[in-house]
Amino acid sequence: MNGEQEVKLRLDGVSKSYARGKQRHPVLDRISLTVREGEFVTLIGPSGSGKTTLFRLIGGVERPDEGQIYIGGELATGRRGLISYMPQQASLFPWMSVAANISSALASAGVPAKEAETLASRWLERIGLGAVAKQYPHVLSGGMQQRVSFLRALLMPRDIMCLDEPFAALDALTRADMQAWLLQLWEAERRSVLFVTHSIEEALTLSDRIYVLSPAPARVLAELAVPFPRPRRVGVWKDPAFVELKERVLAMLGEGAAHGR
Amino acid sequence: MANKSYRSVLLPVATLFGLALVWQASCSLFAIDPWMLPSPLDIAERMGTDAARLAEQSAATLTLALKGIGLGVGFGVVSAILFHLIPGVRTALSPVIIITQNIPLIALGPLLMLWFGFGILPKLILLVLVCYFPVAWSMLAGLGQAEPHLREYLAMIGAKRWEVLRRLELPASLPYFFSGLKITATYSISSAIVAEWLGGSEGIGHYLVLKKNGYDTAGVFSAIICIVALSLLFYGIAALLERLVIRWRPPRSEEKGGKAA
Known about the structure:
Radius of gyration of chain B: 23 Å
Helix content of chain B: over 70%
Structural class of chain B: mainly alpha
Oligomer: heterodimer
Strand order of the largest sheet of chain A: 6-7-8-3-9-10
Shape of chain B: flat
């Protein structure tokens, strides 16, 4: 829309199927989507709709059967090391200090060791975790571990951040807390994000645009822009337009499920 | 807490002391000949008069065992990593290695002396064969045990093979390495004794042969006490190293509930 160079991630008709016994089971069906610079894009779909597979393709861990993936304007199909990633489990290394978890990931992404250490400690300070920077991750609560995990993804100098249901394992209160925290931090930093969730509220609260996926084999059912202005407040769910959008997405997901059968 | 640890030390010590008392009492009550079964006091006396010699011989055994452990552990670690990185090497070599583990030391020892003479070389080979296996095999198991979600995280951010080894697989294998090391530590002393017994001019094993041939049963018991002490010392050092190196594990008894969010 605003010129090709602004698109950080583009999927072009990506399909993937797995062989189970003699049959092939399609998981993704010609998925096309884009994430532009500084844009927060969410994929929403029922569980088992192949969102994790889609991430593995973007990460270059697997190759699509068809279609191409472009990251930062370059062909990236099957290429690793171009994205930063925040998984559902915090996935911090238990034998490294909180700070070392972040700095070693930055070093993997090519940041010089000294600079990585400075960045990690400065940012941990900034998100109020300076006191535990030298501790092992097991002293942190689940929510705090996810904050470290998010920071690790945020600081990696890569074109796109992929967040795979990062709050799914948290309790409702912590989750709401984390959404507010992430919203604030992201709005200050404006990185390009591809976010996966199956919470409609979460998608509407955080994103600029939403792609609604069908059950497997996943297709893009619809693409919607979320009209609420930034900086966004967490109370945005009280807005009548929010409720209306939520109902639309719910209806689409319901229809998609009916089609799938 | 304090009471418990007090008891866990006091009870076994009291038991040992009680046994020694019964032993001493039986020896004098039934007038057992000292060459048949010397009393604890006889043994203590012998250890006193022979202290310099025992210390010298123990030191020789200690040196031999340390060399064996050093080499065995070194080979063990290197081959565990090699087998892990190149599974074909493992498949090719593991039958040979398992066969060497099943030949009794008292059969292998004389053969090695036949081939390599009476110097330190055959003894060292024997020890390395013994020390190698527990370390290599437990570490190899540990290298494959790394948490799948951490592996997936590293794949997604495009970590190189050696980064996966250094940041994930090696640290994850350390607890396994140390259980192997603790086994090796105790094996090494008894194998060093066997090696010295089979042929040699120094060491506690050699001392043991001399005392046995001279029907000096108190001397035999003195040697046994030195051997047990050396084994316990080695095990203790291995356990201490484990505690010093692996500090990231959360304390097991601590309640995690207090740290929620």
